[in-house]
């Protein structure tokens, strides 16, 4: 057993005031890794009080001082990248190679990016009729950051870095399923002597701790990433309090393969877009729309590529797909595989853990094989509801107009990808998708200066580059009449 995870409040590691704990489990083995505080609103109150006490001094630091702190955090996470990768893999069941390449690396680059972005960011002035308008930015104050279990430190650092850059103090709550790397960020903060009270971490259940953060009157802004259903609860709580709110929610993204797509060249990219992190990425493509003229050829090539995915023990280097996050979640995903069959679908490869067991792994692990299903209407429940697991459905279309209609036919609007030999054609097609992000002949290709977020049930607002600077600061326009 690892040492217990504790809350990090006012620069100190402390248990929940009520003394109760939860277990965090390695989903690939079923083993309990350690415990975390089952905190309550009392702990959120203590964390918020610490954040408020630290706020004036932190807001009084210069942008350059805050940038230097972000670089120190990035340096420390860089030094600890193998520790971060190992912790993340154990906590989530994702392959160690993926945890290194994506989670640990991106956690460093999130801090590095916002340090560098902060150094070059400036606001315009507006001059008219002898008056100069200056944009003055100030921190929101104390902000609440609530994050999910699929990319734990990747998504927490994506919010912490710009929040600190803009002079805010923080009360953060990671998912109760994956506390380990958030805890390691606190360990790093303490080790480098980061000012106490600026970054506070409260662990526990969403309705207890997350809800308390969102409803705390002194927490003036909330950045939330998680499920759409929870996003609705967060929004309903925050809206009447007029808090700044950023919601990055679920997705049901379309991967569109046009008739001129070079199938052999793009196949690895399509498999990545479908099954990275066992499909537990809000940006994964879970519906593959293929021009009817190449559907049969695509189906055989894609199914063959999916069957070559190495599903296994996430601690082994050659594993490319580990377990899903929990047995509960595996059960949810399997219920959709059964629903797909009830709705008339045909499983081409994979299936439930009973139908298609994964060999050579712990029987206590929450493993599923990557699953491909065809024969469903694009309006079926399986093809319109978020599954968030290693399951994709295939659908044929006859015209680009039909492909656009199918791609837009869900209540989500986060991301999508289009694959074609003609990038101009792909760019034109992309403009017709009702999503926040579209990749053409690539996937999860991230320039951190770009706006990230979705429309419809995928959320409200954008984060990234200047959009994060805007979200995590308040603007005062100062108009100076020249003599
Ligand atoms: O999200 P939750 P989870 C989707 C995916 C997944 C579903 C649930 O469909 O199955 O969301 O995943 C906290 N007030 N995505 O469980 O439940 C909770 O403790 C305030 C897409 O991760 O929304 C956790 O810290 N907070 C998503 C965080 O909210 C509350 C990535 C997210 O939990 C709360 C992950 C409340 N009432 C899942 N209830 C994406 N878009 O990336 C819970 N929480």
How would you explain this protein's 3D organization?
- With 483 residues, this protein is of the alpha/beta class.
- It has 2 domains: 7-249 and 458-481, Aldehyde Dehydrogenase, Chain A, domain 1 (3-Layer(aba) Sandwich), CATH 3.40.605; 253-447, Aldehyde Dehydrogenase, Chain A, domain 2 (3-Layer(aba) Sandwich).
- 39% of the residues lie in helices and 22% in strands.
- The protein contains 15 helices and 22 strands.
- A hairpin with a 2-residue loop joins β1 and β2 (12-14).
- It starts with 6 loop residues before the first strand and ends with a strand.
- The relative contact order is 0.14.
- The model has no long low-confidence stretch (mean pLDDT 98).
- The structure holds ligand TXE.
- The site of ligand TXE has 25 residues, from α7 and α8.
**Total domain units:** 2
Helix coverage percent of residues?
A: 25-40%
Total number of helices = 15
Arrangement of strands in the largest sheet: 14-15-16-13-12-18-19
Summarize the structure.
This protein has helices at residues 41-59, 63-79, 81-92, 96-120, 152-165, 180-191, 206-215, 228-238, 263-275, 295-307, 327-342, 381-384, 400-407, 423-430, 465-471; strands at residues 7-9, 12-14, 21-25, 32-37, 125-128, 131-139, 142-146, 169-173, 199-201, 219-225, 244-248, 253-257, 285-291, 346-351, 369-374, 391-397, 412-413, 416-419, 439-440, 455-456, 459-460, 473-481.
């Amino acid at each position: 057993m690892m040492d217990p995870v504790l809350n990090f409040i006012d620069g100190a590691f402390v248990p929940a005031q009520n003394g109760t704990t939860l277990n965090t489990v390695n989903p690939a083995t079923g083993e309990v890794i350690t415990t975390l505080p089952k905190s309550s609103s009392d702990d959120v109150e203590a964390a918020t009080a610490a954040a408020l006490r630290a706020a004036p001094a932190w807001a009084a630091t210069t942008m350059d001082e805050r940038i230097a702190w972000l670089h120190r955090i990035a340096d420390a996470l860089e030094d600890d990248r193998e520790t971060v990768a190992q912790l993340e893999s154990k906590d989530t069941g994702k392959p160690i190679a993926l945890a290194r390449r994506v989670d640990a690396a991106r956690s460093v680059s999130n801090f590095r990016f916002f340090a560098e972005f902060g150094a070059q960011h400036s606001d315009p002035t507006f001059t008219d009729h002898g008056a100069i308008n200056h944009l003055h930015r100030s921190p929101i104050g104390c902000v609440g950051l609530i994050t999910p279990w699929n990319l734990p430190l990747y998504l927490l650092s994506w919010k912490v870095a710009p929040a600190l850059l803009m002079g805010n103090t923080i009360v953060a709550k990671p998912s109760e399923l994956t506390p380990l790397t958030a805890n390691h960020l606190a360990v790093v903060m303490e080790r480098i002597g980061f000012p106490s009270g600026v970054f506070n971490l409260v662990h526990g259940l969403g309705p207890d701790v997350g809800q308390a953060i969102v409803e705390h009157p002194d927490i003036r802004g909330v950045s939330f990433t998680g499920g759409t259903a929870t996003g609705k609860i967060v929004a309903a709580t925050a809206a009447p309090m007029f808090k700044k709110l950023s919601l990055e929610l679920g997705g049901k993204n379309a991967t569109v393969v046009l008739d001129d797509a070079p199938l052999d060249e793009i196949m690895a990219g399509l498999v990545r877009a479908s099954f990275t992190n066992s499909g537990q990425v809000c940006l994964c493509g879970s519906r593959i729309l293929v021009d009817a003229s190449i559907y049969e050829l695509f189906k055989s090539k894609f199914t063959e590529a999916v069957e070559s995915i190495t599903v296994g023990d996430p601690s082994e280097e050659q594993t490319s797909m580990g377990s899903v996050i929990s047995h509960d979640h595996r059960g949810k995903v399997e219920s959709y595989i059964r629903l797909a069959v009830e709705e008339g679908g045909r499983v081409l490869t994979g299936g439930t853990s009973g139908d298609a067991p994964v060999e050579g792994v712990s029987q206590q692990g929450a493993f599923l094989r990557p699953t491909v299903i065809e024969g469903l209407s694009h309006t079926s429940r399986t093809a319109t509801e978020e599954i968030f697991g290693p399951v994709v459905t295939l659908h044929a279309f006859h015209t680009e107009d039909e492909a656009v209609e199918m791609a837009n036919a869900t209540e989500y609007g986060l991301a999508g990808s289009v694959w074609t030999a003609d990038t101009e054609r792909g760019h034109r097609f992309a403009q017709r998708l009702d999503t926040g992000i579209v990749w053409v002949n690539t996937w999860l290709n991230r320039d951190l200066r770009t706006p990230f977020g979705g429309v419809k049930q995928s959320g409200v607002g954008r984060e990234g580059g200047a959009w994060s600077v805007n979200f995590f600061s308040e603007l005062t326009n100062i108009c100076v009449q020249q003599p």
